[in-house]
Write a structure and sequence with these properties.
Number of domains: 2
Oligomer: single chain
Number of strands: 0
Largest sheet: none
Radius of gyration: 24 Å
Order of helices and strands: HH
Length: 74
């Protein structure tokens, strides 16, 4: 026979699993809504180079590294 303490912890675990599922559903729904609005930019390759920079160096660039006329300018 289970002790009352074990039954209480089972109920708490069941409730937290419900909240985790609800939170996961909200996060996924928000991500899907955000994906409906496309990202617009003037230059696709500039955006891809910036994304590569962020992934490789783990930092957001504070100056323009890829411009021909204004290189290293904020």
């Amino acid at each position: 026979m289970k002790r009352s303490r074990d039954r209480l912890s089972d109920g708490v675990a069941g409730r937290s699993a419900g909240w985790e599922a609800a939170l996961a559903t909200i996060v996924v729904g928000y991500a899907l809504l955000g994906s409906l609005h496309p990202v617009y930019g003037d230059d696709l390759f500039f955006l891809l180079n910036d994304a590569r920079w962020i992934v490789e160096r783990h930092e957001i660039p504070s100056v323009d590294h890829f411009s021909y006329t204004a290189q290293w300018q904020p």
